[in-house]
Amino acid sequence: MDKKLSLRKYAQEMDAQDHLKEFRNEFMNNDPQMIYMDGNSLGRLPLKTISTLDDVIMNEWGTQLIRSWNNNWVNAPSELGAKISQLIGANPDEVLVTDTTSTNLFKLATAGLYEKPGRKKIVSDVFNFPSDLYILQGVAKYLNQGHYIELIPSSDDIHIDIDRIKSIIDHDTALVSLSHVAFKSAYMYDMSQITETAHKAGAIVLWDLSHSTGSVPVNLNLCNVDLAVGCTYKYLNGGPGSPAYLYVHRDLQPTLQSPIWGWFADASPFSFKLEFTPTPDIRKFSTGTPHILSMKAISPALDLLLEANIQRLREKSVLQTDYLISLADEWLIPIGFGIGSPRDPKLRGSHISLKHPDAYQINQNMIYGSPSGVKVIPDFREPDNIRLGIAPIYTSFEDIFLAIEAIREIAEQNTYKGYSKQRSAVT
Ligand SMILES: *Cc1c(COP(=O)(O)O)cnc(C)c1O
After folding, report:
1. Is the pTM value of this prediction over 0.85?
2. Which of 50, 148, 149, 172 sits a CA distance of 20 to 30 A from 311?
């Protein structure tokens, strides 16, 4: 059998024996010819979300109106937080769904720094999501107490130089704020090791789980993590701009203070008194009225992930990312591509970055269709990364085969040269 046939046959066999294969049918797929490899930026729409939102709009809002606040809405941030807690190894009362990831990072970073007066250093890394770094820069400036940020380097653009960490996290470090899985290379930290290192130095740890939750198991309690944030529209499939979540360790909840004193963080918002008294629990990190419509879209998606089971999702994702790399080794490396993600599955999350000097044009060509008409949706990350996201709950092995075959055709036949290098607003 020729190589190509056997590579495809492997995919078909893996799909046939996949215990999670039925979950694919739980998601909207109106364009079976399109291969979706961007579930790490915007997860697919679960079918159940359509009827859930229809009910929220027609019944809860349309018919029940204001009565729904007491009946269905006011506890949604905590109820959803409790569901997410099962995916990240936290207690139900340690997670709250609210605001955006950026806003939550602002609140928790500020709260953490406030607890460490005198310490000036904030440690992050060169892989962190820019919004996270911008938020930290803003916090350092507006606290106006001489905080500065030191970034852990990478010497290959794929891995973090882990041997440098112990010298960077020191006794002047107040806060260590990192993305657990890096958005570009998919490098994944050993959460337990870094958290322990930070604690030994007396620092607070704040993890961003945006690229982890729903694709890799996370155990915040086991790692003794202080604080965490994450978004719900990537692997959690909560829909565009769905609200984010935050985690605060039980022991820290009574003392930590949110810098935003909104009425939903107050012990009794509807007493309308004139002085703020924060609730002692996680809700002290609420701000104002919750975003009910977008929040209600998150629940059906979480139910699917919980049913699929995060350990099983991770096992599938490792096999799939390994398979993607072996296809790339076979077809793409020889024609000028590089692998921009760790080869060791223990060190990576659930997407693979392929590097190519003309990555943007190839990316556009993939979206509009390969010479044989296969459309693949990846995303592009500056300056040269084609990011292929694998959402094990609905990505099949054959999707991966077809995606890599399309990239090979596009690159071999040079059809991408006809596409503009001009970037769109969202890449
Ligand atoms: C996606 C992502 C965000 C997004 O932040 P928003 O405020 O929701 O736009 C933040 N941090 C990381 C690490 C992300 O991957």
Report:
1. yes
2. 50
Ligand 1 atom, smallest distance to 132 CA: 11
Rounded mean pLDDT of 260-289?
Answer: 97
Contact 221, 81 (CB under 8 A): no
Number of DSSP helices (H) and strands (E) in the chain, helices first: 13, 13
Site of tokens 């003794």? 224
Instruction: Give the CA distances from residue 401 to residues 40, 87, 181, 369, in Å, rounded to whole numbers and listed in that order.
Output: 18, 29, 24, 15
Q: Is 208 a catalytic residue?
A: yes
Q: Indicate the helix (H) or strand (E) that contains 105.
A: helix 101-114
Q: DSSP labels for 12-79? A: HHHHHT-TTGGGGGGB--S-TTEEE--TTTSPPPBHHHHHHHHHIIIIIIIITGGGHIIIIITTHHHH
Question: Does ligand 1 lie within 6 Å of residue 131's CB atom?
Answer: yes
Q: Whose CA is nearest to atom 6 of ligand 1?
A: 101
Nearest atom in ligand 1 to the alpha carbon of residue 208 is 13
The rounded mean pLDDT for the chain is 97
Q: Dig out the tokens for 50 from the structure.
A: 């359509």
Q: How many CA atoms within 13 Å lie on the side-chain side of 256?
A: 26
Question: Closest residue (by CA) to atom 11 of ligand 1?
Answer: 129
Task: Render pLDDT for 61-101 as a digit per residue (tens, 0 to 9).
Answer: 999 999 999 999 999 999 999 999 999 999 999 999 999 99
Distance of CA 41 to the CA centre of its chain: 8
User: How many angstroms separate the CA atoms of 334 and 412, rounded?
Assistant: 11
Q: What is the largest CA-CA distance in the chain?
A: 78
Of how many residues is the chain composed?
427
Tell me whether residue 384 is one of the annotated catalytic residues: no
Enter the DSSP assignment of 253: T
Q: Are 44 and 23 in contact (CB under 8 A)?
A: no
Compute, in angstroms, the gap from residue 160 CA to the centroid of ligand 1. 20
Q: Is 129 among the residues known to form the active site?
A: yes
How far apart are the two ends of the chain, measured CA to CA in Å?
A: 39
pLDDT of residue 1: 56
- Quick check: 257 pLDDT over 80? yes
Q: Which of 27, 106, 183, 233 is catalytic?
A: 233
Centre of ligand 1 from the C-alpha of residue 228, in Å: 12
